[in-house]
Beta-galactosidase
Amino acid sequence: MSFTPLFGQKIMYGADYNPEQWLEHDEGFETILNKDLEMMQQAHCNIMSVGIFSWAQLEVNEDEFDFSWLDEVLDRLNEKGIKVFLATPSGARPHWLANKYPEVLRVNERRERALFGARHNHCMTSPKYRERVRIINTKLAERYGHHPAVIGWHLSNEYGGQCHCPLCQAKFREWLKQKYGTIENLNKQWWNTFWSHTYTDWSYIESPSSIGENGVHALYLDWMRFSSENALDFCKAERDTVKAITPDLPVTANFMEFFYDYDYFNWAPELDFISWDAYPQWHNFADPDYIASYTAMNHDLMRSLKGGQPFVLMESTPTNTNWRPLSTLKRPGMNILSSLQAVAHGADSVQYFQWRKSRGSSEKFHGAIVDHVGHLNTRAGREVIELGKILEKLSEVAGSAVDAKVAIVFDTPNRWAVDNAQGPRNKGVDYLPLCLDYYRPFFKRGIAVDVIDETCDLSKYKLVIAPMTYMMRDGYADRVKKFVADGGTYLSTYWSGIVNETDLCFLGGFPGELMDVMGIWEEEIDSLDEDVIVPVRLEPLGLERGFKSDNYYGTQLFGLVNPAPDTEVLLSYDYQFYKGKPVLTRHPYGQGVAYYVASRMDPGFLDTLAQMLSQELKLTNAFNEPAMPFREGVSAMARCNDKYRYVFLSNYSEHDQMVKLNSVYEDMLAEPEQQRHISGIVYLKPYDARVFRQAL
Ligand code: GLA
Ligand code: ZN
């Protein structure tokens, strides 16, 4: 399987280009532009994102436009064959707009209206803001929509956040009316009888606030859903404005790292392609596999949002960020390695923030391709050039697909619900870390994993892992039942199947509608300080199924379950009154099997479990071979098209490593004088990234 490459048979390579910062430069704008264009070619760049925060330079005062500089920039980029993602400028507004129309300023949950400042902080309901965005976007689309350099729209920038202003409150109430029909129904679904919180009028409803309503979990959930949908509605308005003039130009909105505020699975169908901004904290953790797997999982989420379609790495840094406690530099090799990791997981581009480092203001020390010194003969610049050459060698990879037989369910509304629930662990249930716990052993074995949510189709997978599905969304249990009945393997954990979409608990036992599939009833859940380590005991059936030791332990949360008569107990607790209660169960259902894990288990357990499942389900790795864990810091990922398998082999550690190849591959990055065919032992230098090809 493969996809039509998003923008031709190449990997796109470039950056956010914000040349409006240099309009008044001493050397003259022209000089800077010429230097930039020359260096872009030197770096093998073929794409730039332009206009992201340019509103004040394009509309200097209300209805007073100046496009002269942007005309020049686009024409000059075009002359050099560099394509453009043209941004709509709504991510930051000009002073005049905020001062003339204060309704555009965002209001926080304490009902305080912001002053002008920073960015990404406008009200997304404000008719005035929408109107001014529509006007500038129309101008941009009319002027540049058919410009030969422009190949796509970069809508706004990193949409995020919420607004609690009166306009948003009114819209929220309308949204609730649509959803619930009557106030009585809303009261019932939200369980408002408790603490006398029954609403008798729609106008009494206010968004959650630390100085107001903050104990009605269903209100919080609906507010999160509304805010996500309202921001999406704003994004769609931007999209529709530009699509009316340029129906064929694809649109994207750059997404963020496991973003909390919005439900990206809801957003994805409204965009033509997915893009995201990746800033992993490389080198800040002793364990190289931690940050490598965390970032890989994020890439996998982006790929899965549109059913495996390649995505765009819209931003990354060639060196460091400047907004974290530590601005650690990427070590030599890491920029190439981390960029190829994105490509390995399905990106058809590598792009940076930003092309030329700002001279002043808030990002003057953020990494950029062209540093303050003004040329590319820097450690980072040389690596950027080298990567440009590498990506040209990998052009044929564009459009190839990652074929995952394993999926992890990471569901955003469930995340909101389980964090807010006032349940067994208010200091944090660690939903995302738990998902990563399960992802990591598959990453370590080079087994491809999709990251899906509760609304996704399960039928293409052999194994679906659904940690802590506290909230079971409508229809999910039915899909799981069918998946398992048809032969799938489903793995779930403690604190699953507890509530419905309005946070009402399932009556009749947990995990609700999946009790019969899972073959357990979770009667209680206990919570202990993280220092407490709860030992487990290996049961005879566990030994039979491949568990060799019982040197495992659980922490944090402890489901205490009753197994059904036909449920196999593979491991049990060996602790206090939990003793003998199951820790790992296996239950046949239809043609398939359901596993349940009762606690937050240690890495050794998770690794053994992944090995057992890989063998049982004959899961293969990036080399299409039975999967075994790679050495520390090493992993592999593959993309395929109809002709070739492309294997990306990576060493995220600061040590030399090696991997044994069991067949012959072509080394796609070999220099002409080097041996192109390789087999046997491959030696990996620290932060080494290799790409091999094999005909199918
Ligand atoms: C985000 C923004 C960019 C820039 C970078 C810096 O991703 O989109 O404008 O601020 O962060 O890391
Ligand atoms: Zn608002």
